[in-house]
Amino acid sequence: MKRIYKQLLSIFLAAIILTGGIAADSMMSIASSTRAGNVQEKNTEAAKMEVHFIDVGQGDSTLITCDGHSMLIDAGDYSKGTAIQNYLQKQKVKKLDYLILTHPDSDHIGGAPVMITKFEIDKVFVSNYEKDNKTYQKLIQALDNKGLKYTTPEVGAQYSLGTATVTILAPNDTYDNPNDASIALMIQNGDNRFLFTGDAEEAAEQDMLENGMDFAADVYKAGHHGSRSSTSQKFFEAVSPSYAVISCGEDNSYGHPHAETLNTFRMNGVKVYRTDEDGTIIATSDGKTITFNVPASETWKAGEPNGNSSVWETPKSEAQESKKQETGEADPTEITYVLNVKTKKFHKPTCNSLPTTNRKDSTESRESIIAQGYEPCKRCNP
Ligand SMILES: [Zn+2]
Ligand SMILES: [Zn+2]
Q1: Using one digit for the tens of pLDDT, what is the confidence trace for 18-48?
Q2: Could you tell me the distance, in angstroms and rounded to a whole number, from the CA of residue 140 to the centre of ligand 1?
Q3: CATH for 49-307?
Q4: Which of 176, 177, 290, 336 fits a 20 to 30 Å CA distance from 12?
Q5: Domain boundaries, the chain
Q6: d(Cα 348, Cα 335) in Å, to the nearest integer?
Q7: Would the pTM of this model clear 0.85, i.e. be above it?
Q8: What is the distance of C-alpha 368 from the center of its chain?
Q9: Which has the higher per-residue pLDDT, 343 or 197?
Q10: pLDDT given at position 310
């Protein structure tokens, strides 16, 4: 639909150039009536859908309601559980048709046990990445206590949420990096499409593109809180959103959103909404148009890691040098392989699926790493 609309618009623009120009106003009204005409033919009965990007500080939690049905994607960290519960109750949510926990990082699942305890839930979807920590154990315990089954949804599977259709797009593989194992999904109501990719980073984005599904969306919840490790150029082009929503905490220590991501949005005329600036953001879809409860952000302000050096201003070599001093990491020029001390896999430093947790940079030889029980990554074949 979006592509057809763009094609029509470009044919129309060409016609204007040929005929010597028409007022911009009438051009817009003709273009939008063309769009509305198509929508009416195809989707007459889309109900109102609301997408609440709940302000949970640094983390994610999105409530989607449509025609009396509801879905919660992620539940912020441990300290946000009760606040999300209250928010859901204020929205008169009594039952969740779906609870989707994109991946097991604490800023996504920490608050989930509260929801599991307090609400009736039909279906629970989790990532195929399991963690061996307290937060994850508490989640599984809460699910078991409630007698709830949980599964990883199949890519391509579709579910209905009122008049909306939810299509699963990821995970397409198993990964060393929990972010890449995120469940990704498209929610379509009438002609309005919303894309959620959790914290999926570039490797997972590539795998998504390879599955050949349609990623074009009107609203894109920026992957990984607007980090530069997500929203790779090719993926962005496939999504080609009109709106991006960034869920991140004010002055978060990761420096989210990163300047690179904001720049991609800005250069392409994407309207940006941010929970760190506006609090909870609500997008409403009637199947044809999408409206937001707040105006788009105009700040284009990137986060500042650790509250000091700006991503823009620090030259890369300097940034690496100071990071090295702070953390005592190995000299980047001497690193031979990157190890995952938990999964016991090792990677080339250039692998696009490097671990972000349990990571150890090694300067040893391949043989001695294998002798320590590590297996080569199947992706980069070190
Ligand atoms: Zn996250
Ligand atoms: Zn994560």
Answers
A1: 444 444 433 333 333 333 333 344 445 899 9
A2: 19
A3: 3.60.15.10
A4: 290
A5: 49-307, 316-376
A6: 9
A7: no
A8: 38
A9: 197
A10: 38
